[in-house]
Design the sequence.
């Protein structure tokens, strides 16, 4: 009997020890709610623990080391969306500043490594319409494309205006994709083009059926217009294997025992097959030049490879897309060339014509008036009120409208020519209550070259 009780006690201790070890193992790999990113300088991950608001860095062995608390007034203790939804990150200033967005919302957070400050920089109140939108940085501005929410797929482009803390809509022309969600989505900074293809779709009837588009589109930021490039190569398994990573130059698509490497500029698809090397998906990916680094939450948690090295061992399987109609393409190309010639002849008639398509009437009137000023001349507040037709409005309304128009012009010149604060404002020496406005000399020279 004593032996029986002894065995029973040992059996219980073994079970308890096993459960404890299992708990410890599970806890060691549990995800801590955090804002996580990859530092482009070190190619290692960093994060802000949202429970303790501690900045931590990962070493080359996969160990997370605390580097002290961040300076912040934020509190995420009751923020369920932060815990439940994924966080996107965007490196700015070569990693000196990181922006974060919360999936399905318009919230934007910023962390500065220089002064260790962590804060929210948007003033958004809306959420729930843009889950899994494709977001990217273009010329230091954050853009968001498509998404899903409120039983609806989106195909709109928006951008974040940091000075206002708000998102603005981009009005576009051309053949717009029906939806933008998943598939082949990526911004090509070298050519200033955003690609969208094989997006998820859904029927609107009582019987809901999901599907995927079979076309590739591109949005050209130089013309602010969409173009239907044609039908996707049917050999690509975009309906079965949806994990696709954009390196900035290539789309990498993982499938069983193979990797598709897609070059949208050259319009070519390659497939890499090697029984000695398998590619595990569901990792976090980071592209640095030609190298792709894969992270997993485990020891020995990184793997990396050169895309160009794999391309040398890959075989081409055809074009990425087939043009929908050669005749239409030739016609559009000819028409575009003809319009370009007409625009060249006419562009000197109106100063600012090159960016006229993205300026409202008030904005265009203001820019033309500033361009016509002699060196050393200014527009004062009263002249701006006359120009913008603001007389009869309250002083506060006049001020708000003036600043809004100026901010819009500055933003659009920044987007088109990468010139910050094109319109300058100084105090009137004769009356400090009044302001004087003029164009920065760099702006005038740039516009003269491009108009």
Sequence:
């Amino acid at each position: 009997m004593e032996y029986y009780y002894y065995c029973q006690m040992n059996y219980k201790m073994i079970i308890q020890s096993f459960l404890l070890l299992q708990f410890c193992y599970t806890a060691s790999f549990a995800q801590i709610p955090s804002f996580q990113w990859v530092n482009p300088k070190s190619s290692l991950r960093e994060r802000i623990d949202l429970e303790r608001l501690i900045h931590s860095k990962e070493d080359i062995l996969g160990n997370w080391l605390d580097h002290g608390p961040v300076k912040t007034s934020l509190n995420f203790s009751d923020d369920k969306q932060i815990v439940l939804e994924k966080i996107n990150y965007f490196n700015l200033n070569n990693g000196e500043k990181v922006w974060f967005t919360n999936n399905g919302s318009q919230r934007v957070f910023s962390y500065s490594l220089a002064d260790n400050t962590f804060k929210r920089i948007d003033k958004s109140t809306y959420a729930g319409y843009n889950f899994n939108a494709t977001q990217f940085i273009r010329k230091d501005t954050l853009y968001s494309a498509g998404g899903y929410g409120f039983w609806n797929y989106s195909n709109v482009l928006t951008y974040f205006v940091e000075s206002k803390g708000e998102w603005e809509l981009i009005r576009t022309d051309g053949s717009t994709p029906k939806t933008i969600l998943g598939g082949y989505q990526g911004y090509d900074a070298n050519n200033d083009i955003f690609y969208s293809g094989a997006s998820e779709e859904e029927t609107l009837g009582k019987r809901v059926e999901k599907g995927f588009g079979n076309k590739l589109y591109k949005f050209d930021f130089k013309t602010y217009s969409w173009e239907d490039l044609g039908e996707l190569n049917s050999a690509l398994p975009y309906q079965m294997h949806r994990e696709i990573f954009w390196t900035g130059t290539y789309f990498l698509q993982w499938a069983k025992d193979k990797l598709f490497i897609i070059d949208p500029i050259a319009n070519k698809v390659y497939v890499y097959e090697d029984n000695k090397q398998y590619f595990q998906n569901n990792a976090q990916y980071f592209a640095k030049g030609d190298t792709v680094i894969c992270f997993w939450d485990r020891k020995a948690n990184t793997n990396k490879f050169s895309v160009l090295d794999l391309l040398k061992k890959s075989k081409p399987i055809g074009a990425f897309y087939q043009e929908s109609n050669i005749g239409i393409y030739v016609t559009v190309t000819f028409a575009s060339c003809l319009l370009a010639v007409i625009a060249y002849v006419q562009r000197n008639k109106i100063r600012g014509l090159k960016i006229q398509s993205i300026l409202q009437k008030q904005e265009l009137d203001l820019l033309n008036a500033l361009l016509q000023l002699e060196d050393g001349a200014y527009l004062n507040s009263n002249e701006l009120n006359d120009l913008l037709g603001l007389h009869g409005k309250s002083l506060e309304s006049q001020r708000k409208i003036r600043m809004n128009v100026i901010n819009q012009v500055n933003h659009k010149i920044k987007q088109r020519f990468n010139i910050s604060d094109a319109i300058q404002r100084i105090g009137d020496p004769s009356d400090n209550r009044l302001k004087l406005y003029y164009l920065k000399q760099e702006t005038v020279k740039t516009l003269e070259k491009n108009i």
